[in-house]
Amino acid sequence: MKIAAPRLRAQLDSASPEEVDDEERLLDLQLEDVDLSDQEAEHVEIGGCRLTRCKLAGSELEKLILVDTELTQCDLANSRWADAALTRVMISGSRMIGFAASGASFQHVTVRDTVLDFASFRFAKFLKTEFSDCRLQSADFVSADLTGTTFRNCDLSGVEFSQAKAVFVDCTWDGAKGLASLSGATVAASSPIDTLSFTSAVTVAAGITLAHPDDLE
Known about the structure:
The protein has 1 helix and 14 strands, in the order ββββββββββββββα. By secondary structure, the chain is mainly β.
């Protein structure tokens, strides 16, 4: 699965907006150490931008359009981006604890080395998306369409899935929920221990009890 990278201009204009309004457009900009925490706006468009160490924690950006954009070491904790549309986006080294994107659309999105504990993606749709080296403890993917999504070297402890037809490579599964409904998913593990861990988790999720024959005499 090849994921398209963000398409950015070689030279970007520097900017330091202090707030964003409804239907505002931020295009071809370099934003560094900008604080947009707790901003509330609808139909904002961010395109062709590079955001570095920016704070968007607690922001409520409904129907956000995010395209051809890189976010590095940004704080998106407890942000609410309902019905957002992300296309050709790279997120790396960021903090997304409690991030919520219900009903959002993700196309050609890569998320690397990012903490997404308790994030919620209910009813979101993912197409050609990869989570790599991420921690997603207790994240919620209920009713999300994960077809064409890859989780690689991710901590999925306590994650809640339903009908996740995704690819999972070398992931941690302790306490993950909804594993019995992963029909169509592909799971690969380099370590036999990891394979056994996943098998055990699926067995528990299906309500099956494994026992030794001697225990049943």
